[in-house]
Input
Amino acid sequence: MKPKKTLTIALMLILLSTLPFTALASDGDSLSGEGYVVVPANPVQAVEEPKADPVESVQPVEAADQSDSAAADDEVQERLVGTVKLTSGNLNIRKGPTLEDEVIGKLPNGSRVEVLEQLDEWVKIPYQGTSAYVSKPYLVIAKETIKPNAGASKIIVLDPGHGGKDPGAIASDKTYESTLVWGYAVKAKEVLEKSGYTVIMTRDEKNSCTDYKSIYDELDCRSGLANKVGGHLYISLHADANPSKNFRGTVTFYNARNDLDGYQNPFPQESKRLAELIQSQVQPTVGSKDRGVDNKNYYVNRMNTVPSVLIELGVMTNAEDLKLLKSKSMPEKVAVALRKALDQYFSEL
Output
């Protein structure tokens, strides 16, 4: 290197070293888990798709430019997600992309679904291990950035307890268990799917899993869904009840025994570990008494084909627990707690 060029570089280095450096700162046993009370069902109003005059669909929102951020990480992925926007009722899920195709399910307002494919007036979505279609004008479609974790691509079957003609436990202020846990399930689905999980619900907001005459038909429908859709885990959400108004707390049940009818969950150790992880995250989040984990013969756990748990978030007949469970911020907090538990569960495999 020539002396003149060396001197120039040295002077530049001295000048750079004197520049200020700026750091950026950012700041008892369950009474509701298996007990069912039959009441008249409320009919569900469904939104029919437009028969003519195409509605201008919402264009996907462009993802923010993240070229100078962690988006350069190979693990970051993008997908399209549709959010149901209705003025009333529910959005029909159809077997095919026409009005003549069979209605096989419903999506309540605010539901979020992954968009597999966009057609002129229809959107293809994942549904119970296969695909189905919903009307495109009733979805707000946007790009979503996700960073897959240890549970990426895992299918979680989420069971909001009771529903349809069965309200479950009823609090002193007439709050239905089925309504309460539905809100928790919807938020959990949203949070888990943002982390890369696929979440399939056993029921919608107003309907049970199947139109049943015997409660065992309903329990079979729920406990058999994981096998039907290729699920990896099953989580049933409930809120407990007890004759004693002082009885309270959060508990998570699993099945590792066959002393009732000879049947047992085929993954007892995995179910127990899942219960421990969920209890360790959810109970402190709710803030009620820690009732621990318990090995019980609940049907949806015992007759399942995957690791399965049933969690009682709190006790609706206890005033303190009911206040905690009805807190507006609690569903999202519990959803995050569930996601942390599942992340840890899959990281241990």
In short: DSSP finds eight helices and 15 strands in the chain. The two ends are 57 Å apart (CA to CA). Residues 148-349 form a domain with the Aminopeptidase fold (CATH 3.40.630.40). The mean pLDDT is 81.
